[in-house]
Amino acid sequence: MSRESLLVACAVPDASMAEAACARQVQLTKPPGSLGALEHVAVQLAGLQKTRTPAVDRVWITVFAADHGVATEGVSAFPQAVTGEMVRNFADGGAAISVLARTLDATLEVVNLGTMNDPGELAGMKRAWIAPATANFCEAPAMTDAQLAAALGAGQASVRRALAAGTELFIGGEMGIGNTTAATALAAAVLGEPASALTGAGTGLDAAGIARKQRVIERALARHAHVRGPLEQLRCLGGFEIAALVGAYVEAAQAGLPVLVDGFITTAAALVAVRLRPDARPWLLFSHCSQEHGHASLLWALEAEPLLDIGMRLGEASGAAVAVPLLRLACALHNGMATFAEAGVSDSAASVTRVQA
Hints:
Number of domains: 2
CATH topology of the largest domain: Rossmann fold
Distance between the termini: 62 Å
Structural class: alpha/beta
CATH architecture of the largest domain: 3-Layer(aba) Sandwich
């Protein structure tokens, strides 16, 4: 994905369809607002999909996998070999997101951008190899310009495959030992926040491990303190999979494809995408509030209201997948409920108008 591609304007939601959906919600046989967020998201999807009958039956999930040079600093409770092992598990259908995708009848694509423990060619996995890992960003920029472009392009290409398949909703996921460290450093740089405000347990670090992780992030932020702009901050502090998510989100927004954002790492990518293209923001729906310490700050910065808060922090796009049934139910209610007139039920608003007349 070239830097010029990032200059392309994003699609504009259809305000008239959103207004029509909002008007329909008022006429459905229920007190206005009684279905809460289900009403709001149905109206939002109607505007994004430019239709009176929104749907998310065809869902595409891409999990981008990549390793991080910063893992050598001991920032994870798991060894770096796990990334490649989990890629194999995804391909074999044994991971949480594999089970969720099957249950949802969603397309699951796994894209290996570069792992130290390379599982090789696997059925059910796409290789978009860049390098075995990013550089350790405590010592150098995480990516070269060419690597960043390749990672962004991998995300762009995934969305184009999803569009060709007639997808109605795109979900991006990630896998990479050390990637909560990268996402935290990147988010801290973009938001101008200290590492302490965003650093969490990741894969399950104890207090000592979190303190070590925070010191590593502080070193990285100090080394790259001169870097300005979200794209350069992504290059210096991000990861291949985080950059791929950024490319995917921008491409989806440019093409007019709604996106359901997962947890902490994907929200860090969404933050960068919106800083690069503010007009991408309407295309991003947010699935859940992760238990990862810094996620609430990222959601606040994006003015996002997630659908769920059920204590998840797995990643892999699992939180977003769990929220898909809510979106489907929201669409079913919006499309299938009777209006007061159709059901022959008295409308309280209309009744008040008659009494006043």
